[in-house]
Amino acid sequence: MKVTTLTINGELVSASPGATVLEAARENGIRIPTLCALEGLSTVGACRLCLVEVKGSPRLQPACVTAADEGMEVSTDTDRLRRYRSMILELLFAERNHVCPVCVANGHCELQDRARQAGMDHVRLPYQHPDLPVDITHARFGVDHNRCILCTRCIRVCDELEGAHTWDLAGRGTNARVITDLNQPWGDAVSCTSCGKCAEACPTGAIFKQGSTVGEMEHRSDRIRFISAARARKEWSP
Amino acid sequence: MDKSELQAIAGKERGARKPVCVSCCTAAGCLSAGGGDVMDSLREELSASGASQKVEVRAVGCMKLCSRGPLVRVEDTSDGRPVADGARLYEKIKPSQAPVLIRAAGEGEAAELPMVDLSHPFFTRQRPIVLENCGVVEPERIESYIEADGYLALHKVLRDMTPEEVVKTITQSGLRGRGGAGFPTGIKWSLVAKAISEKKYIVCNADEGDPGAFMDRSVLESDPHRVLEGMAIAAYAVGASEGYIYIRGEYPLAINRLQTAIRTARRLGLLGSRIFEAPFDFNVDLRIGAGAFVCGEETALMASIEGRRGNPSPRPPYPAEHGLWGHSTLINNVETFANIAPILRRGAEWFASVGTEKSKGTKVFALAGKIANTGLIEVPMGITLREIVEEIGGGDPDGQVKAVQTGGPSGGCIPARHLDTPVDYESLAELGSIMGSGGMIVMDDSNNMVDVARFFMQFCMDESCGKCLPCRAGTVQMHGLLEKIRDRRATADDLALLEELCDVVKYTSLCGLGQTAPNPVLSTLRFFRHEYEELLQKEVTLA
Ligand SMILES: Cc1cc2nc3c(=O)[nH]c(=O)nc-3n(C[C@H](O)[C@H](O)[C@H](O)COP(=O)(O)O)c2cc1C
Ligand code: SF4
Ligand code: SF4
Ligand code: FES
Q1: What is the domain count for chain B?
Q2: Interface ipTM > 0.90
Q3: CA angle, corner B36, sides to B33 and B37, nearest 5?
Q4: Of the CATH numbers 3.10.20.740, 3.40.228.10, 3.30.70.20, 2.40.160.50, which one belongs to the domain with range A4-77?
Q5: Ligand 2, from A204, A209, A221: best to mutate by most atoms within 8 Å of Cβ?
């Protein structure tokens, strides 16, 4: 694989061998909004926030899984993309229950950050407010399904970095939910090593450390990148 | 197994035929109307009557006019093959009518029972290629398929053609995928043939999840060997030696017949190692789906075969490059595979002579809705919707045809004023619908278009896998808005919001399910916008 050159928003940039469009943009200081992608984990292309326009392609492409090919012409911030991102965020806020002022992650939430950056300041869609449970059976952590955006970062970090595969998905569509072990209370999930990687990886207030109150749950998702890089490339500096 | 053995089986089969053949449909449609008991009574009656020197009873597949089942056909086969105009098709047969039928058959007379007119356009306007053996051969007996020239195409391919020649023939035939999107089959085969992969797989997509569709089920229940033969030819062409048929669990009869077909083909050496003494091995296994529509999407289907949750993944990489367990994989629909053997037997030119410039061959549809004749039809591409609805379907018995829905939850409603549109991939797409896999529902004035759109949206909402946000949450919101409009609670702002959501979900969803979920809304808005607007609340102006 070779270094490639491509154009992002009219600017000629270089990308490391094998980089995705998202990585190429980051290497060059261009910000593309993301939620499901987390450095150090595999990519799934699920949240659709990182969609970009690629010249010559009729479809929008998710930057997190699209290879940065030689000569590609990418636009990351068109009017159309901004409109779509804003609606995607509205859909997320309306889907479950995201009342920021009473959330443990208030001020440290990636969903909140994305909305602020996109200028999404109100939701035109009816709030669905499903009646979802909060599981606090684990000694150190809890999961509030009302705040979950189904990014599957917890599932991937637990499977790929911790090797425990405690988390998984059950149900489909709007009934999809993250579960622990065989859909048991987290406290009964014998595969859980209580490492806390899922709590660091979770972008919202869904997974929290017990005892946190409003605004106290700070996720250190950069630790996930550090662990992954340390393992893969023997890089030990954070 | 070699060609002479194949011919010997066919010869023996022909020699055993009796002058009069009583064929009873044993596909799911007629079975659900009591066809199984009819079959048993016919057999009992035949042995009791002593007419078995002259008359035979055969359990065949779908005879297409499913709404009139159980169907029984009686025909003269004295010269070894059925005489076309000597056949009589009896409808809605009861077990108690077996004695009358058998007696009349033995005497070469017509029984005094309700009969279907075989010279009706429903039969004469059809052009059977995929369904040529449907209702003719016995699906549970491989000998019956061999008698109808079965496995001759596989023999020809393995003994006389290189893999490249096979791919070229399919490309020249102009065949396009029948699973919905219409991707050129020859190109797909050449991509897999050229892929460098330690191992390659063939997958037959028999998940058929569109509501109301039963084309693939009918093919598998009526002529399963045709699909196996198509898959084996594909395997030779692309260099694969293992295949899977992914079939939905709701099709127990089709599963059963496929299992029988695989077992008997293996026993005769038509599947397995060194088929026809050629250096070619091919084995097929079934994988049973658990009833998720999204598992028909190719990446989700492969995840399901691998034993993972049936969620789609972003493409690229396409299955040709990175398929089952990371290996290059060819995935085609049941009907696509069912077209392969006839193309190789009769040539690419013959196939390309049927249909239009860009859509070759025929298409099988499950015709349903407000129409006199419902059932399974196979028509040449390029036929107009009007010919299908008015001639083959016999029109709407009580009222006016308002629209024709094609493509199920991914398709659209074509209004009656466009009935002269030819059925081909491009013409249907221009009208905001799609060819789809073959669902065709005729609607009249009793169908409100807002409710039609709401029905399909509910289907997509229930079947969304939930992986990507626009489809998971967008279908819920669109469904809510459609309900609000239907119940006269919505305003013009709600309609505008619905249109905005359609745009977002269509262009941002991960897989085809979400990308096409807005289609029924968009197409009914395009042609029946007034039906939405009539239901909106009028602006209230405060004095
Ligand atoms: C939601 C969804 C459901 C699908 N269901 C089916 C199906 O039931 N049967 C099928 O053959 N193709 C289905 N497809 C299309 C397949 O992904 C794939 O394109 C097809 O099997 C390719 O075969 P073909 O080239 O022979 O058409 C579906 C696609 C989507 C997006
Ligand atoms: S719990 Fe957190 S990390 Fe897991 S899917 Fe939900 S939002 Fe994502
Ligand atoms: S479009 Fe719908 S079905 Fe397809 S991946 Fe997204 S949520 Fe799943
Ligand atoms: S970050 Fe790319 S789809 Fe979520």
Answers
A1: 4
A2: yes
A3: 95
A4: 3.10.20.740
A5: A204
